[in-house]
Amino acid sequence: MSVPVIAIDGPAGSGKSTVARGVAQTLGWSFLDTGAMYRAVACEALFKGLEIHDEVAVATLADQSEITTLPRVTINGRDVEDEIRTPAINEAVSVVAAQPLVRRAMVSRQRAWAASQSEGTVVEGRDITTVVFPDATLKVFLTASIEERARRRGDESASSVARRDEADSNRTNSPLRQAADALFVDTTGRAVDEVVKEIVACLTTHR
Length: 207
Ligand code: CDP
Fold this sequence. Notes:
By secondary structure, the chain is an alpha/beta fold. The chain has one domain: Rossmann fold. The protein contains 9 helices and 8 strands.
């Protein structure tokens, strides 16, 4: 691995994106939201009228598409920043993310992206500590109570959050799991700054 990587996994609403962004900002590192990549692929599949259960068609699309996550989420030049958070995409992303060929395409992009960074990078998702960067400098598993997670995801119903949790934890391919050597952080009732400080402090003992 060419640059240090902090890998963060956790369920919906656990605070991954906010905390990962804060850690990256504190360290002056880059940040990658891999959920946004899967969401962008789901958007494009629907936009192109693909049958989203057609794994080969969706994986081919994933392989051939240009995706950016910052400053805006785009796919093939189309801005999908707002569309990725709609109920239709909350549904479709679970289908797309369960497909092994789609995951293979995303994982290789995520590794290539990290390898191209000049400083360190903070990467967050569902399989980052277990599959994408099992040798990351620091691995973190974030969680929070189901009530607090549903509350934080104000843009998504509690039943949709619960359905995605179930789908992400029980799928055959790369289910959400806590890596044995990951730092476990329960963010329930805790301020973002405090969690960011805990992770940054932990990094110094892991380098
Ligand atoms: O923001 P939130 O935690 O609600 O979800 P997200 O990070 O945007 O991810 C959306 C969906 O993409 C998840 O429910 C997973 O099904 C999938 N995903 C994945 O399978 N692997 C990743 N590394 C990241 C996201």
